[in-house]
Amino acid sequence: MNIFSLTVFSGVLLTLSAMGQTKNSSPAESAKSVTVGQGEVARWAGNCLRCSFEKRAWDAVNGTCYYPVDMDMEPGKYTISRRTTGGKLESATLTVTENSCQQEDIKNFPKKEFVNVSAKNQARAAKEAAIVNPLISYKAAVRPAVFDLPVGKPANPLPKGEGNFGACRTFDGQPRDRHTGQDYPVAVGKPVLSIGNGRVVLAANQFFSGNAVYIDHGNGLISEYFHLKSYSVKPNQTVTKGQTIGLTGETGRVTGPHLHLGVRWHGACINPGFLLIDPSDMPEVQ
Predict the structure, then answer these.
(1) CB distance 201 to 216 below 8 Å
(2) Is the distance from CB of 114 to CB of 208 less than 8 angstroms?
(3) pLDDT over 70, % of the chain
(4) Nearest Cα to 101, choosing from 208, 175, 207, 186?
(5) Which ranges carry the M23ase beta-sheet core domain (predicted)?
(6) Is the dihedral of CA 142, 146, 151, 153 positive or negative?
(7) What CATH number is associated with residue 68?
(8) pLDDT tens-digit profile of 37-47?
(9) Number of domains observed in the structure of the chain
(10) DSSP string, 225-260
(11) Does residue 166 register a pLDDT over 90?
């Protein structure tokens, strides 16, 4: 057999081998991914049972996995996964992108006790934080979800938010912590509504937050309502979606009357506006 015949014969064998591999091998499943900004929420819909995000895990909500991203989470790529109702384990890449910090410089702040905070008030705020932090942190075991998305509005009507979630603030030139909620320009004395069924875990007057209510909605979701004129619920009380829990006010560190709504989900501080939209409008794993 000459060299030309050997080359042709080898080519035929290679072609047949490739055909055999194509016939007997199933095509590789394409990698799944989603891109989401800091302080936002991603979803993975379809027969979900259990969800995980790096080393944290939780149950799905009505068959969908939600992945809340903290407003301070480092931009980059992370691994998320889900277990389906059929027992299948799937993984995907979640890419966190940076949302720039809006700068708010509040000058001539009228409540000077919140600018130059006394040692007594610093001690008070530290004690209050020691109570709140365990309530809003991630927990491996949580109550089952008693809410669905989208959640209800915290006021009716609810005006457009001021877009200051995550803002970087200074008071009379002094830097302070980032703003952890969304402010809505609601006048004093208007009813404040629970965004979902749940249980009140704290209702108290706090130095920075003023009259404040925290509600546990299960599945690690905690809603926060700050600066109230008054509140009408107490700890361990069960509330329903749309129930009045207090009245809007201007207590605590505020420049004027408004409704502050904050949300912590599995320990992540997120923009509450993402829970008010149709879930299908969230970034989705594909």
Answers:
(1) yes
(2) yes
(3) 90
(4) 175
(5) 178-272
(6) negative
(7) 2.60.40.1930
(8) 999 999 999 99
(9) 2
(10) EEEESEE---TT-EE-TT-EEEE-B--SS-SS-BEE
(11) yes
Same domain as 160, residue 68 = no
Kind and range of the H or E run holding 90: strand 89-97
- Residue 248 domain-assigned? yes
Comparing C-alpha atoms, which of 138, 241, 154 is closest to residue 192? Answer: 154
Domain shared by 218 and 277, yes or no: yes
The predicted pLDDT at position 175 comes to 83
Residue 233 lies in a domain: yes
Residues 66, 165, single domain; the answer is no
Q: Give 220-241 pLDDT, tens digit per residue.
A: 999 999 999 999 999 999 999 9
How many C-beta atoms lie closer than 10 Å to residue 164's C-beta?
A: 15
pLDDT in tens, 71-81: 999 999 999 99
If DSSP codes are grouped into helix, strand and coil, which group holds residue 190? Answer: coil
DSSP 113: G
pLDDT at 14: 34
Contact 89, 154 (CB under 8 A): no
User: What's this model's pTM, rounded to 2 decimal places?
Assistant: 0.88
- Final residue of a domain: which of 75, 97, 119? 97
CB-based contact 224:196 (threshold 8 Å): no
Instruction: Write out the residue range of the structural domain in which residue 197 sits.
Output: 103-281
